[in-house]
Protein 1
Amino acid sequence: MEYSIKSGSPEKQRTACVVVGVFENRKLSLAARIIDQAAQGYVADILRRGDMDGKTGSTLLLHSVPGVTAERVLLVGLGRERDLHDKAYRDAMHAAVKALVDTGVGDAHVYLTEIPVKRRDLAWNVEQAVLLAEEGSYRFERMKSKAPETRKGPRRLALAVAARGDLAAATAAATRGRAIAAGMRLAKDLGNMPGNLCTPTYLADQAKALGKETGLKVQVLGRGQIEKLGMGSFLSVAKGSDEPPRFIILEHLGGQKGDKPVVLVGKGITFDSGGISLKPAAEMDEMKYDMCGAASVLGTLQAVATLQLPLNVVGLIPTCENLPSGRANKPGDVVTTLSGQTIEVLNTDAEGRLILCDALTYAERYAPAAVVDIATLTGACVIALGHVATGLLANHDALARELLQAGDAAHDRCWQLPLWEDYQEQLKSNFADMANIGGRPAGTITAACFLSRFTEKYHWAHLDIAGTAWKGGKEKGATGRPVPLLVHFLAKRAAQA
Ligand code: BES
Ligand code: MN
Ligand code: ZN
């Protein structure tokens, strides 16, 4: 989709559709009022008759409105004007995009962006509009033998800023929104691909292709090289499968030579059966999404490269399958990590931490400014935070604060859980330096405690995206999260450098 930022009178736009907001109690937004005046009370009449109530997310499409150049006017409900918050704005924009897609118009001029939202500025409105427009027109149809006859979104969207609005800030926000949306699209596509096609080899090939497109430096290590490095924990998971593992390294060198990089580490389990500690059959298909951390690293690096952020960023992706076989990890097995520490594998389904720990040790060689790992790590996180917030745990409070703020700014929120010493006890093993599980209580925290034993040399944060990386049920599909959070985090760091 193409976006432009425009200020101009809503009744004079030559477009298939102008989109204007309506509040509850028949209150018109500025743009709706101008349309209504040009149409001599036509809109107010319709509202008086009760055809539309201004409730958040309601819509009404009007054709050939007198005095208005556009072919159509789409009224969109925003709820009560006094508390127009993030969610109401997003719900309204979502409904508007859906109506535009259903109508099949080729272009539209959206005036919702100039409506003030609590605590937010014009740039936020514009970025969210772009993200919601892309979200609303996303389809994953490449696995269907015939292209379904669903309608695509408009090709061109003009986003309105009030006459004295900050055009430069709005344009920058649209650019950032497009880069984030493209990164999310990549992350969603990879997540939605079935496990038989989206293998570790496929992920590595996608990373290489991304390198060619964007100029990112990409390196892929195979089983032999991973063995030579000594990543015994990662390999113990990989050896249960016939698909060979890969260790993917991506580098964006946008900063000064010698500037310490931010390292992103993404869990890339392309299918998690649980291994010998086999998962139950119900919904096991969703474990194809167990590589969404890896996908978010690729999506984020794509956005970072597109935006040419003046910052050094490294992506590390350990990727393999977790399957049961004659060569698979068994409960009670002891493995030796790249760090030298030993692990008793009490549950082969706690495999994410087994591949991440070696990648986290590998990250030390960059003397990183900060390391953030992203992983669909624990079912417990879904119980704690549901599908709204990503779990955040960190060994450095300032880094945690940065991520909390980035999540808020991007509307891709995370919430911090404690990483107190007290929880470490749960990982005690009689036979190795640590066990790979800490029992039922505080499962998300003990998983992070496990990782914390491999991150003592740098500032580190962990994002558990088990509840936020994809949706189940009828709307099953990857969400592209936390690409928006990560891009905001990195963009802010770049701006401050
Ligand atoms: N990939 C899963 C976590 C997961 C489960 C994400 C369900 C989303 C939905 C992870 O590898 C896993 O199996 N974790 C176990 C850990 C347990 C054995 C300590 C879990 O959460 O049950
Ligand atoms: Mn698992
Ligand atoms: Zn897993």
Note: The pocket of BES (ligand 1) is lined by residues 272, 290, 347, 349-352, 376-380, 382, 437, 443, 466 (CB under 6 Å).
Protein 2
Amino acid sequence: MLVAPSILSADFGNLAHDVKAICDAGCDLVHVDVMDGHFVPNLTIGPVVVEAVAKVATKPLDIHLMVENNNFFVDLFAPIKPKYISFHIESERHANRLANKIRELGISPAVVLNPHTPIENVEYLLEYVDMVLLMSVNPGFGGQKFIPSVIERAMRLKELILQKNPECLIEVDGGVNDKNVKELKNAGVDIVVAGSYVYKHPKGIKEAISSLKV
Ligand code: DX5
Ligand code: ZN
């Protein structure tokens, strides 16, 4: 399992320290949650802060857009050269056009589904993206409870991926911890995002990340 800690649960007063800490502890990607106050009822960080994160991160960035105007935000974040930019299918009318645009910018495109969005809504997009992110909470906040139906959804998605684009990865985001990571692995999930579990683990960040590498 690859591990992408979410810096949403970091101490923003000591962000550089908290980004270095997850990289030194062996994370695979640095997950960056971008919220616009419209698509989700919360606001986070823009390109100025993400640029600063990119400067200290020694692992690639995984930018998760939770916004209404994806096109505008892709243009804002593309110069930072993250590995992934993921956009929500629920806020995008021209999904394969946007996926192609992200790829032309030299970034891997990924699409995200909220917990209630049918998997079939992205079936014809699978050949255009490098990753599908399944939300296991309703996006907007860290520290929410894992919605277990994501396990069955990951298994269905894996079947479609094997037919349409076997290279495409599955990422799961929200409420991930050492109790559910095994089941996610067995369901075909490649990458887990974990925020509060990693940053608030009583034994520290390193222990938390290792416990997710199943
Ligand atoms: C939620 C974000 C997540 C969040 C995960 O909207 O997309 O990345 O930070 O936090 P935890 O792991 O605490 O649920
Ligand atoms: Zn996220």
Note: The pocket of zinc ion (ligand 2) is lined by residues 6, 31, 33, 64, 173, 193 (CB under 6 Å).
